[in-house]
User: Fold these one by one.
Assistant:
Number 1:
Amino acid sequence: MVPEPYLVQGVKKETGDTYTLTLAPAGGGPAPAFAPGQFNMLYAFGVGEVPISISGDPGQPGPLVHTIRAVGAVTRALCRLKRGGVLGVRGPFGTPWPVDLAPGKDVVVIAGGLGLAPLRPAVYWLLNRRAELGNLELLYGARTPQDLLYRRELERWRGRFDFRVHVTVDAARGDWRGNVGVVTTVIPRMRFDPAHTLALVCGPEIMMRFTLQELVKAGVPPEQIFLSMERNMKCGVGLCGHCQWGPFFICKDGPVFALSRIQEWLGRREV
Amino acid sequence: MARSSLPPGAFVTLEIKDFQQLLEVLRRQGYLPVGPALRDGHFVYDEIASTADLPVGWTDEQEAGTFRLRSRGDQALFGYGVGQHSLKQFLFPPQRQLWQARREGAGWRVMIPEEEQPRYAFLGVRACDLAALEVQDRVFLQGTYKDPVYQERRAQALVVAVNCAARTCGTCFCVSMGTGPRATRGFDLALTEVVEGGHFLVVEVGTAAGGEVLAQVPHRLAAPEERQAGDRAVAATAAQMGRVLDTSGLKELLYRNYEHPRWDEVAGRCLTCGNCTMVCPTCFCHTLEDATDLTGAVAERRRRLDVCFTVDFSYLHGGSVRATPRSRYRQWLTHKLATWWDQFGCSGCVGCGRCLTWCPVAIDITEEVRAIRETEGLLKEK
Amino acid sequence: MDAIETILAAHPFFKDLAPRHLKVLAECASTVSFAAGEYLFRENEAATNFYVLYHGRVALEVVAGGRGPLTIRTVEAGEVLGWLWFTKPYHWRSEARALEVTRALALDVGEVARRCEADHELGYSLLKAYSHVLAVLFRVAFVQLLDIYGT
């Protein structure tokens, strides 16, 4: 399993330390198809590999999109690439968001921080099939307005009449006129029929745990709440043992899990 | 009496002097014989060329945290237990270059090392290590992605098992794990060495490949009393296991007790040295490392076995998920005895006892499990 | 029931209070409105009002030195803003700026305190509603402190 070289076609700075790269296979042709929620192992030549969720539109053949936060040696190397640079791609891997369960239901998508990156493909998919859904709501929380990803896109989505988009930050300076408050305080303002709702949640583990509590409290069945988990990954294909979380290999049993499947493990510490 | 092959299920008797012939037949057929040997006072697995390379006349005394080599006073070929080595290093090389990449144009060109994989003939494989092969087959060959080197070496390997007899079983508990001391499947040939009332080997044919090899070695059909002598020796081994592990409801027991105070107790002793993972025949966790040469033009990816007891094994977002030794010991034991079931449909433990013997502070997993089982719910969680 | 009582009766904070208690509270209340950008209160002013928002949105800001105010919470219609002190008066430690046209009831906290002393049933009902709001604020503040989006 060797990384395929991909050319950087474009780099967009999303926030102070987060960049969205648009990529295409160096050998030509379209990037392979993927399902929303899947990830690739991205390789910085000679430095290392990291798992990064795919952030593009699964319905459009064409460029591969990844949003990367520069936090370590590999991600910093990837974020330094410019147009024409090359990185390696292995994948796609992992279990996807169960968007096939969405038709006929209300769908709430709740993202925190960088968690909007793995959820964006699901949002594209859902908007593509908007007519088949009940209510469609997005709640996106970040630390400050400067940390919001995909701002222009968020504003476009907000402009739609059939998509309620709630954005909230933990603190704000200057001319932010939007909501300030933690994500969980906004959930009661969302419109959904809990018994017929599909919930997709992604963000820092603490944020997900609080969010899941609120959703369960509101009456959404755990079988219909899905989250995306993370652990240290090396091989990405279920052989090296690094991404284990109890009995689960995050790379192949996840990263997307139904809450009902992993509820007992969420409550365990240092597992 | 030379035949083209002996059928699976046949039992023959081999004279000790003819064991050498077995090695030669294997070499003629292109196998590389690997078997037990004595190095620096320890039993290892190594290439063997003759019967004399085996630890003839040696035995061991093993206890938790203890290994002692002893002279037997007889000429038994297989009168000892398992040492630090298992077969995993032959099938899954502990260190390996996976590929090399050289910058070329906009990208790079990958070179995958072309290696011819050795055809091993593993000799003297104890039933526990045979069970470990089966476990590792599930790990490396059952999933969507299989390890190609393990797959090829495993497919090519010939396995000559040995049923443990005439030895002490200090830390062994294969009986508790249902893996021994008799090898019941997965072998091409299985030997039982009889040292009382004669000295010979009773050989069971497991596969056609084994039968083909054995047919070329001088042998005779095993007489009933010879087979019975072998059976008695193996039964005697089964009766004197060094340890017992009660496996009833073990997965659920451990799942219920992730916060049992015993974990704190064992964490007070565990050095997180990782010896247990290195000697365990089923531990498979490995890591991938990328590096370049000094020019930065050539990169390589290497794979090496890893140890879940290290702090950075579970590194994520500026910290480790398993930050405490307590959580890391718990991870190893619960993986081995509990979550392995959900992952691979079997136990990760084969009862070989190596982790007891080679733990510098003599942690005994059978004792840890017993302590949790006996005090479940009785002690206040810290 | 006059206009103020109607607003109180419809407001989530007062949902468990008996009508006769709402009548008493209505007597401590006046209607206030703010244009976008107007301040409801400033740091160090006496916190004599307890605001019951029924229209609009307010940003709660902390003055944080030379870098301009930091908004730590936005308060919406249906929520409350302020301290119900029952002993000594408090002073505001933060500032509240209307983000859009905002209408609220301002309850005079001194008057409310006197009415609660006279009628302990009213006091107990009010305290129950208020302590729930405080508990939620506490929990939310914890989560903010955790800085969950940090590295």
Number 2:
Amino acid sequence: MEHWSLASKASAPDSDPQPPSVGARLASDPKVVCAGGFIVILIVLAVGAPLIAPQDPLAQNLLMATVPPAGFAGSEPGFLLGTDGLGRDVLSRVIFGSRVSLTVAFVAAGLACLIGSVLGLMAGYLGYVVDMLISWLVDVWMSFPPVLLSILLIAVIGTGLHSVIAAIVIIDWTRFCRVVRTETRSQAQMDYVVAARTIGFSRPAILFREIFPNVVPVLIALLTLEMGIAVVVEAILSFVGLSVSSDTPTWGGMIAEGRQIVHEAWWVLAAPLAALFATVVAFNQLGDGLARSLDPVLRR
Amino acid sequence: MTGARLAIEALSAVSLRDGNRPILRRVALDVGTGEVHGLVGESGAGKSTIAKAILGIIPSQVRVTGGRIGFEGRDLLSLSPGELRAVLGRDIALVPQDPSTALNPSRRIDVQMTDGLRLKRGLSGKDARLRARALLEEVQIRDPERVLNSYPHQLSGGMRQRVLIAAAFGLEPKLVIADEPTTALDVTVQKQILRLIRALQERHGTSVLFVSHDLGVVAKICDRMTVLYMGKVVEQGATAEVLDAPRHPYTRALLAANPRYDRPDAGLEPTPPDIIAALRAEIAAFDAGIAGSRDG
């Protein structure tokens, strides 16, 4: 008798409603929804740029140069954000410029994340010698000034989209490596990892089944932040003309052009600057929101 | 008593960090087939070190300096890491101390339970899930599907410990190491968990090495017991005999330290200093004896 009454007492407190799932938590976080929504819109614009952009971003028309945006005196229909010094449509150029920015954001941050994570997991889990070698490499690597390193690198391998991506990956993998190494090391001490060892799981099984899933939340957050950084780095490199060739619209290139005519046509500078600013803020906020929502310890 | 399933002989270990301070002093103990053996002692007595030595998870600052951990005729200490991995999870399983940290927070219960069944028992994913469900029912969880679909933080401590017990016994090991499995639970849940371990152990004929600092818990569940002090076996025997007629003054002191429900004014006595002094002298003589026999 007593036995069953006790059993029911113990299981009763567990029948409360289940806490919301990860998906529901993400959907209820305004940061994740707003920033994520912005990024999704940006991706749609970038992918569908030829269909969405109202004008050819490269079409010049010197008779229509420095037309102000809609709503200002002298604006022309069809040029919502006005035109630049060569009469090209600023809105179309901003939309096409997002292609380079997002490509760099996803590819460069993704590759840096991949390389950094693999080395970080190795350093954190394969023992003292591997850890020492990789950590030493990271320390030496991080002691180079990043901007000089990227300019030097591009001077050696030449300009272009590939070079920009390579420069970001080569500089920023260390960021991932450090964080993943630290996380892996602290995870390896956890009781559930020790418990997995006592079931006799192999080391790779423990690394990928027990440790890695707990590193993923911080990795996703870091990846998103890195995308914001990559967008800025690409803009800097195109500003100084070290990115893609100048006939491809980029936000950095547009900022450089707009800077020269800012007194006659401020919108040529303002539009790409706003796009850059909003994108970086969105990536940072998304990373912040994801870090909170995905953390298994905080997920209560 | 049928033959011993686990036979620890003269197990010695030292702490490397602490000037080679001995942690285990020629510990010998047997756990028979189907026996629950209590391993009792205060913090730092070496209980957990013994459990860890069996499971091959000795921390790096501890070194085993001698002895043998016989399990079914093989010395676990002399197995290669691969050989030990084959034994662990199939023949030996652990019920950990703290259910709040022993489950992986980012993996669902079903995945964590079926991992062992698939890798160690060779079950298919579907069979493993059915088995996990049946195991949860066996530990009296009323809505096993909901528990299987939960993350650890969605379950109470008692529920998590049931899951861990189900997972350990579900592998059908010959020996279960229970490392203070009730210490982190509140008292009402404790009692059920003890009953559960005992019931599962009897049903499957499992041997259990039950590590605890709580004599009350040991009295309820263990057939035989070993009392450790500073890594030395102080007293060993059938639980009823040891508790009813303790021969060693330290065991008597431990019993006196237990709260008494019938006499609230008694109990909770610290170990008297003269007994500690006598124990230390005994251990010093024991160490000298070992050193002497080694030299001679």
